[in-house]
Amino acid sequence: MILEKMNYLAPRRKVSLRASSFGGFHSRRLRRDIFATEIKNNLFFCSVIIIFVIFFLIDLIIGDSQLFLIINKKIANPYLDWIVISIFYPLFSLLFIVPLICLFKKEWRRASLIALISGPLSYIIGDFLKILIARPRPFEVLSVNLLGPWHTTSFSFPSTTTALVFGLALPFLIYKNKFAGLLIPISFLVGFSVIYTGFHFPLDVMAGAILSLVLVLSLSIFLTKFNIKK
Q1: Which residue ranges make up each domain of the chain?
Q2: What average pLDDT score do residues 117-136 get?
Q3: Fewest CB atoms within 10 A around its CB: which of 32, 66, 112, 161?
């Protein structure tokens, strides 16, 4: 009787050990995958900051007007004109479409809500700053290649278009959403486009992006501090 019980228990112990071993392996693999994802997300965020810093240093060394002329005139060509008008600007619509779609998924809702608040709010604050600073548009003070029939306000600094697009995109980067890989590059392309088409100086674009970054971080801290639910 005792032997029968031992024989009955032995296989179960082996299975239990195998299950325990498999569970430990699965847990380690899951932790490794999470760690790798965290590194990738942090590297992406750091890369965005590094791009801002490099662009600012180039602008500081070359000069804002000279960097504008390089982008607007020296690299200008009909192919790039077509790409900017036909591809870059239509991509702009994705910056609104993606946050609206993400509202319907719970784990993406906070990022999309902040995006839909910070984007328009960045634009409004930027518009107010334009009136205070009153910097002329590039085509008012320089000989430029003006491209596209876009409506513009009187002043240039900061770029409210850039503030809007980064306000819509940065929350997805802050909250490590996979759509950041799509929206952040589009935001940089829009920032490049408003310089290339002759409507903004490089410093206007950087100021618009920084304005959005400050606003997005402030909203994120506010939501976390007051524990506002998704």
Answers
A1: 1-62, 63-225
A2: 92
A3: 32
